[in-house]
Write a structure and sequence with these properties.
Blueprint lengths: L5 H26 L1 H8 L3 H28 L2 H20 L4 H22 L3
């Protein structure tokens, strides 16, 4: 098996860059717990709950995305997922309190559940 073709090479690079960005995102919050906790008046337990909510959102959305990608245009599914994740990130960024952040993560979980209903998975 030879080296990947042009578009395969580009896809490989993009997938690896996305993986690196995701790992950086996962490592970012624990590195700035003190600053984020002070800004949101949250305890370390509360910040751990935020990390849990984030993981639940990902766990809930990955099977939906995989199902949608198997039945629809994958580029559109990826674009929609990126748009939804960017919107969720923006809403969390403009949150002023810990309660707002928690609600927005839980709302994202509800959106993933609604998408599952629309796709007939639930």
């Amino acid at each position: 098996m030879g080296p990947p073709a042009g578009h395969e090479w580009r896809t490989l690079v993009l997938v690896n860059l996305a993986s690196i960005m995701e790992r950086a995102d996962e490592a970012l919050l624990p590195a700035v717990y003190r600053e984020v906790g002070a800004a949101l008046n949250a305890t370390p337990t509360g910040l751990g709950a935020l990390t849990l909510y984030r993981s639940i959102v990902q766990a809930a959305c990955y099977p939906i995305a995989a199902y949608a990608a198997s039945r629809h245009n994958r580029a559109h599914v990826i674009a929609l997922g990126a748009l939804l994740w960017a919107a969720a990130t923006f809403l969390v960024a403009v949150s002023g309190t810990f309660l707002q952040v928690s609600r927005r993560y839980l709302t994202t979980i509800a959106v993933c559940g609604r998408m599952a209903d629309l796709l007939g998975l639930a």
